[in-house]
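Me: I'm a chemist; would you kindly supply a protein sequence with its structure tokens?

Assistant:
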Amino acid sequence: MLSDTLFNEIFTQLWFRFGLVTMFGFLTGLEFLEYTLLRHKEAPDVHTARMGSTRTFTFIAILGYVLFILDPAHHLYLTGMAGLILLFSLFYYHKLGMGSTGLLQPLILLIVYSYGAVITTLPIWFLALLFVAVVFTLSARPLSQRLTTSMDPQEIVTLAKFLLLSGVILPLLPDKSISPYIPATPFKIWLAVVLISAISYTGYILKKYLLKKQGYLVTGLMGGLYSSTATTVVLARKSRSLPVIDSSINAGIIAASGIMYLRLLVLVAVMNWQLLTLAMLPLSLFGVLTIGFAFIIDRRGRTTPETTPELGKANPLDLGIALLFAVLFVIMMLITQQVISRFGEGGLNILSLAVGFTDIDPFVLSILSGHYAGMNMHHLVGAIIIAAGSNNILKSIYAVILGGRKNCGMVAGLLLVLALMTIAYGLAISNMIIS
């Protein structure tokens, strides 16, 4: 308690805030200097205008802080900002005369000028967050250039539409049940669609644009975010086309299933955290051990192909795909509710085994989002784990059929063993007696 009080007193001191503003202004100037040097190395023949040096950033940060605290009405602060905007306008006019149109430095200097206002009116962590955002944006230039040059413009439009539907429609949906036959609210249904699409899109972008030539193990890891079943199909087919057995492809198939467990753990944590205590150990254990085993297998292959196979051409954020998933989600909820009401725990376990031979995401999310009478947490977590194990049986079949016994026989056997262990664990949890 004494240390907390001491820290709070220090954070409110003028000298401490002044020091932070000065330091962040100076560090921002250093980062921008490094940015301009990198630009000069990339295009040494291009001359760009600069407004001062690192000291300029520092003094502008100090000026903003001093003017903000001198006048409680902040007229001095706004006057100083107006003067800077006028100066930046003249600077930009000069840049236009040189054939340059970049606004980056004036914009960053305005942000630096606001450091004093931020630390005075907002928590200190927000100033640190603002500084990190500026540094990250400057240092991420090579990544942003690679994305803008290689990314399909239509995918950017698709992302914008999905963010609009997620950010605008989701908060407006009612969080109350609209039908006794659907044990979830419209808000929960669309939240599930948003969540699964976001996870799949992460893997889709990483594999398609950022990790094209990172080998089959990385393909499996990223593909597990998109779809472990689709990844198994693609890599098994690729294995059959190779003249020799490649252990790295088998490692990618195993890794995709490992990521599936961790993916399910994220869904549980976000959609129904009450089940997290029971689901944490088995899902994290199976996931980490499976991925670790994939790395061991990969050491025998270590093949880095020029291009790895395409995991999926459909963008997970496409509205048609999202709406189809929502429909499948609702249908699976109806089926699950009917099975539980008629057959109880045994029927739920059989349904879990059956859905493993399809896409398990709608079933898992229906378990996490619904309210099923008579089912305790052990039954629900057990159903999720059984479905994951059953899905591994499907991937084992795909591997041996599409890749052949010679190339994928071993990995098919490993998936089958993993499936049986997972199903056994799920049945054990489901049948656990609660005292």
Summary: The chain has a mean pLDDT of 79. Residues 2-139 form one domain.
